[in-house]
Amino acid sequence: MRNPRPLLPLLLFYALSCGGAAPHAVTPSPPAPSAASAATPASRVLAVADGIVDDMFEQSPEAVAMLRPPGARYDGWPDASLPAIAKREAREDAWRAELGAIDRASLGAEAVTLAYDVAAETLDARSQARVCRSELWDVRPLSSVMTRLGDVATAQPVGTPELRRQALVRFALVPSIVDAQIANLREGQKRGYLQSEVNVRQVLEQIERVMQMAPEASPFFSPAARDADPEMRVKLKALIETHIFPAVGRYRDYLRTEYLPNARKAFGVSANPHGAECYRASIRLYTTLPRTPQQVHDAGLAEVAVLEAEMTALSKKSFGGADLKTLRERFTTAPEYRQKDAGSIVAQANDAIARAKAAMPRAFGIQPPSDVVVEPIPQFQERTAAAHYLRAALDGSRPGTYRIRLYKPEEQPIVLGESTAFHEAIPGHHLQVNIATTREGNPRIARFLFNSGYGEGWALYAERLADELGLYSNDASRFGMLSNAAWRACRLVVDTGIHAFGWDRERAITFVLDHTAMPRTQAAQEVDRYISWPGQATAYMTGYLEIARMRADAKKALGDKFDLKAFHDRVLESGAVPLPVLSRRVEAWVASVHSRSPQVSRGPQTL
Questions:
Q1: What is the pLDDT of residue 36?
Q2: Domain boundaries in the chain?
């Protein structure tokens, strides 16, 4: 799953640093803290929490277009100018002060306490991460203007005269978005905040691929392609030709002639001003835990060793005891272990998801109400984007979507496909996110915010849970699951290596290749992602280890009273809460089970 801009754990997984017209509020803004001071502590907390959600929606038109909450408008863009960012930060500081003046113990209601905990952690992490000044160097393949415009276009609702009008108004504003992005990057150049050269080249490649398309074939044409009105097709094509392509071309020219020659030659964020402090803050932001780079690095090395021991045992059981290097090479290069074509990738994903759907009642009491479908990553992104999940619309108009990578299918290993489907769809992101989004009894901040430590930790846990449920079709795919876990452990080593310990790109790629069954093209793509997005890749394994620890602790404490379904439901019912908040909630559940009188066993307590 992709996350938004580095300073905001929001709905999607890419940056929000674009600008333009003033945004349209999705819901009425909460009272300012001064106006709320006479209200009850509970109402003040909910006002702050709702304000965080409203601000998130205002800053993320792609998130709103995908989620489609009640009252949303689809004809504006957020203002990402530096003065606007300063105003948002001042508002967040006021919210932090408001929460600081409230006695948490006096709140009473569980939902209000949950809102307080999530809001407090979110605001503290954002404040700490401001040192990164990410809005000044946001040139990343996962969050470029190109990517963001394409994602908004493919999610933009149409189908009525008013929605068509809003779409046309929104896309007429694209030149102002590009101008705001260029202005921020120029300011970053002046202050020494720069993106790595390798990532700038990738964004330029994305732009070139789109600029070579006919207007009707571009991602920007999606609203008209999904609408039955022929006039909409004519008008949007004209906008693409007269507004969007010229603006994107202007951005390309700026990056190529002005930015690229001055881009950061070093790979790590440590080369930026306050880079070491930025990286520590990024680890906290994404994992929601106060870990140092050295702690993260050491945890990764330890987990790689644990996983390689598991792979060695599996090799002895099913693959003649071949050493791991030989086995990885076999699974990566042997024709019988490579995908035949794009259709085989799609079929494998759909088959895995169908098996997972059938198995979910064995492990979960709470079920996701919306369906999930498989679709390819858009062509202009397919070389630089990884598989990811996009959430379902609240109104039922769009299912959850698992986007798969079809770039050079004949180079993709079969053994990695099933675990990735379980991660992105069921029992991973789709199950977790769709449950969170649709639980109307929870505060909005628990329904709609996302943090990587919990969300990505859960999705990695889901890959292991799929093994417990017997969902892998063979031991080769089980090896792929272990390889995928080793890849996430490698991320702890490689991300910290790049951003804290001076690793170069080739050293990082070699480490990934030495410990996973990943082809070189994918390993390089992954390392380039870590270069562009400091800290986010550390969330996956860190979150998984925390959730696994909570389960082990609960099982040890409860003994034969431990119920796996109940544990999963407790972990999922409150949304993507920060990991320390989740730990406290699991501990409270364990205490509540202990406090009850002995009950008759409800059947097997493990799978």
A1: 43
A2: 33-265, 340-480+496-536
pLDDT tens-digit map of 166-179: 999 999 999 999 99
- Dmax of the chain from CA atoms? 72
Of residues 73, 60, 55, the one with CA closest to residue 14: 60
Helix, strand or coil, per DSSP, at residue 213:
coil
Q: What pLDDT score does 71 carry?
A: 87
Length of the chain as a residue count: 607
Q: In whole angstroms, what is the distance from residue 380 CA to residue 334 CA?
A: 29
Is residue 190 within 8 A of residue 215, CB to CB? The reply is: no
Rounded Cα distance between 427 and 348, Å, is 16
Helices (H), 378-474: 417-424, 429-438, 444-448, 452-468
- Side-chain half-sphere of 111: how many Cα atoms within 13 Å? 11
Q: Which residues contact 450 (CB under 8 A, 6 or more apart)?
A: 1, 3, 9, 10, 11, 12, 13, 433, 576
Single-letter residue type at 512: V
Q: Any idea what DSSP says for residue 389? A: E
Report yes or no: 18 and 179 within 8 Å, Cβ to Cβ. Answer: no
Structural tokens at position 524: 């390089």
Return d(Cα 97, Cα 129) in angstroms, integer.
18
pLDDT number for residue 607: 52
Spatial separation of the C-alpha atoms in residues 353 and 357, rounded to whole Å:
6
Two structure tokens written together for 53: 């959600």
